[in-house]
Amino acid sequence: MAFSRATAAAVVALVVLLPHLVVAVVLDVGGGVAARPCHSASVDGDAGCLSWRVMVEANNARGWRTVPAACVAYVRGYMTRGQYGRDLSSVMDQVAAYVDTVEADGDGLDAWILDIDDTCLSNLLYYEAKQFGAYDPSAFKTWASKGACPGIPAVLELFVTLQAKGFKVFLLSGRDEETLATCTSENLESEGFLGYERLIMRSPEYRGQSSSVFKSAMRKRLVEEEGYRIRGNVGDQWSDLQGDYVGDRVFKIPNPMYYVP
Ligand SMILES: [Mg+2]
Question: What does each C-alpha distance from 236 to 153, 155, 164, 227, 248 come to in angstroms?
Fold first, then answer.
């Protein structure tokens, strides 16, 4: 009978405890679920910055002077951990698909426009060191003067392809011509950008004017005075791609680091 009582007690204990054990197991699993809000909170934090980045790329946010403080780490991660490279690659796939559909005429007047900063040459190292802070003309000039901006391989590939197809490639940059022309051309050369038709930089008469105004004026000159047909235009800023004579197709390269009007 003692055995029976012990057995009965064990059965009772099991019956009593089983729901608790089940609950405990569920709670343990639930612990993972309970951890989700933390995870979700992190994702939500990034999601806010993702929304901001999409807004920037779509040109809905204009005139911003710095990456929002809450998104500095996000932008660094975006630029350095692979997503920027994937996005850039996707853009360049679209450019390549378009390039396949256009041919250069034999008259030598079919042209492409490529921007330089963060299109042909990367300033990521500079902006990352500056925490993606406000534009600092003096510090940027010091950085650019070193002529050490890494080339962006996917854009170099396009540059080579365009020339092989007979297009004239114009490099159009808002950099100051008087102070940065030599280091810029040397930087381009050292990164493999050779044989372009012309490097056009901001002359003193366009100092203080927006990039959009300056670049529109330069494109107008190419088209109206020199007879070029701009078949394509690639830049990291909307101010590269809007205004007058933008070209038959424009392609926006990602850049959540800074805004140029
Ligand atoms: Mg640029």
Answer: 15, 11, 23, 26, 17
Query: Do the domain assignments include residue 143?
Result: yes
Q: What spacing in Å lies between the alpha carbon of 115 and ligand 1's midpoint?
A: 5
Distance 170 CA to ligand 1 centre (A): 14
CA 105 to ligand 1 center in whole angstroms: 28
Alpha carbon of 107 to ligand 1 centroid (Å): 29
Residue 98 lies in domain: 92-252
Instruction: Give the Å distance between the CA of 237 and the centre of ligand 1.
Output: 6
Residue 233 lies in a domain: yes
- How many independent structural domains does the chain possess? 1
Distance 239 CA to ligand 1 centre (A): 9
CA separation for the pair 4, 9 (Å, rounded): 8
Is 14 part of any domain? no
CATH, residue 96: 3.40.50.1000
What confidence tens digit (pLDDT) does each residue in 1-36 have?
Answer: 444 444 444 444 444 444 433 333 333 333 333 334
Cα torsion angle, 55, 57, 58, 59, sign: positive
Nearest to residue 200, comparing CAs of 189, 183, 214?
214
Q: Output the CA angle 81-258-136, nearest 5 degrees.
A: 115
Distance 203 CA to ligand 1 centre (A): 17
Rounded alpha-carbon distances, angstroms, from residue 122 to 70, 99, 176, 252? 24, 23, 17, 15
The answer to whether position 27 is within a domain reads: no
Q: How far is the CA of 117 from the centre of ligand 1 (A)?
A: 4
Of the chain, the percentage scoring pLDDT greater than 90 comes to 79
Element housing 110 (H / E): strand 110-114
